[in-house]
Design brief:
Blueprint (H helix, E strand, L loop, with lengths): L7 E7 L3 H12 L4 E5 L5 H5 L15 E2 L2 E2 L11 H15 L3 E3 L3 E7 L2 E6 L2 E10 L6 E2 L13 E4 L13 E5 L3 H12 L4 E4 L9 E2 L2 E2 H7 L35 H6 L3 E3 L2 E5 L2 E4 L3 H25 L22 E3 L5 E6 L3 E2 L18 E2 L2 E2 L4 E3 L16 H17 L12
Length: 424
């Protein structure tokens, strides 16, 4: 029995981004009383962890929050940062979410058959908890950054805003995922000398055979492929996203073309000592692998067009416009004129505030389609929660609808079973 002095809700949602707000929409649809706690402000990550020139890499038509699809004049455009924030804020107003901004959830535990949710403004109890906090909690900067000379400015990609923010001199960007490549492009277009450490992230065409590649991939059902149908299974959750951009109406990101224009590309960073970087001999291999994925996507689209007799312009597969020479295995930061480093090295998860047997051996919430092994606890808004579209505006509402339907059924019948197969 819950403590009578504490407010109680049938459901508590932790996180007020698009995932938590989608959960709130579906809870309202079921008539379930709830509260949404948001540590910061609505759309905090979009607002505060994106650079000035940031825009979506998926077209606007994929913004499909529940009963609130994109309704603007450019369905095939790419919303910039401030418009994304406005879209999420408008959704919150549309659903009239019971949102508590500026209230941090500090601990979630279970006491006497109910969940105790301790916040910065006091505790509440709940019959069910939906964790809508994604998996990107703490900026991940490798320990080797501690060996960088003090004179060099270092920031994580989440703190990057524009080229003027960084001191004069060349800029080293470490990491070639979506953020790293787009930040490198932002600096390159501003005329800055850029060194880019290239990893294993794949690339994707922006437009191919008369349409955005995303449109073709959607027709092919790629965004509806479930984690259980994917050849990699749960391992796909650790894959890097394909790099491309929606900037200036959308285009490919071609690192080889940047190199031909003066950007300096390097293999993976393996160490830092005495003011110098140690680099792996894998630049050519990483570029070739990214191009192979690019052309593989083109080939997939080609087969779809041929199999369905679709009238479409002819397409050309990518041919490298630049090849790396003998790789440099050491890079002296001072001699190269590098005055700053942008660490585009992702984020770490932090579930330490969830005092429940929720995590697997890798520290990842064990779940199947958002239903965890802890009865009454759900996750939503995580990459590949169920499909490729799960971490996007496209499918986060559908995922939230599934977990709330399960939550509602549990409320009607507390014996509602946890799905048999839990993702690990």
């Amino acid at each position: 029995m819950r403590a009578p002095s504490l407010p109680h809700h049938p459901a508590v949602v932790v996180g007020g981004g698009q995932a938590g707000l989608s959960a709130s929409h579906h809870l309202k649809r079921h008539g379930i009383d709830h509260v949404v706690f948001e540590r910061n402000r609505i759309a905090h990550a979009w607002r505060s962890q994106r650079w000035d020139a940031f825009c979506l890499v998926t077209p606007n038509w994929q913004c499909q929050l529940p009963d609130f699809p994109y309704a603007g004049p450019e369905p095939h455009g790419f919303m910039p940062r401030d418009e994304i924030v406005a879209y999420v804020e408008a959704f919150a107003r549309h659903i009239d979410a019971p949102l508590r901004e500026g209230v941090a959830v500090e601990r979630v535990s279970r006491r006497n058959g109910v969940f105790l949710v301790e916040t910065s403004e006091g505790a509440v109890t709940a019959d069910a908890v939906i964790l809508a906090v994604s998996a990107y909690h703490l900026p991940n900067t490798p320990r080797m950054s501690e060996s960088v000379p003090d004179a060099i400015v270092q920031i994580h990609s989440s703190a990057y805003r524009n080229p003027q923010q960084l001191p004069e001199g060349a800029v080293l960007v470490v990491g070639s995922g979506q953020s790293g490549c787009q930040i490198a492009e932002d600096l390159h277009l501003a005329g800055r000398k850029v060194h880019l450490v290239v990893g294993s992230a794949p690339r994707c065409p922006r437009f191919y055979r008369g349409r955005d590649a995303v449109d073709w991939l959607d027709d092919l059902g790629q965004y509806d492929m479930t984690v259980e149908q994917h050849p990699l299974g749960e391992k796909v959750r650790r894959n890097a996203n394909h790099y491309l951009t929606g900037r200036d109406g959308g285009r490919d990101i071609d690192l080889r073309r940047f190199a031909a224009e003066g950007m300096v590309l390097h293999g993976r960073l393996t160490g830092i000592d005495d003011g110098s970087l140690t680099l792996a001999d894998d630049l050519a291999r990483n570029l070739d692998a990214a191009d192979a994925v690019y052309n593989g996507i083109c080939g997939l689209i080609d087969r779809h067009i041929a199999d369905n007799a679709i009238a479409a312009p002819e397409g050309t597969h990518y041919e490298p416009v630049w090849q790396p020479g003998e790789p440099a295995r050491r890079l002296d930061l001072a001699a190269s004129g590098i005055g700053s480093i942008v660490w585009s090295t992702g984020f770490r998860s932090d579930w330490s505030w969830v005092d429940l047997p929720l995590l697997d051996e890798n520290g990842y919430p064990s779940h199947r389609r958002g239903v965890t092994g802890v009865d009454g606890v759900y996750v939503v808004g995580m990459p590949w929660l169920w499909t490729w579209g799960s971490g996007r505006f496209l499918s986060v509402g559908r995922d939230a609808g599934f977990v709330v339907d399960h939550l509602a059924a549990r409320g009607r019948d507390r014996a509602a079973p946890v799905p048999a197969r839990l993702a690990v």
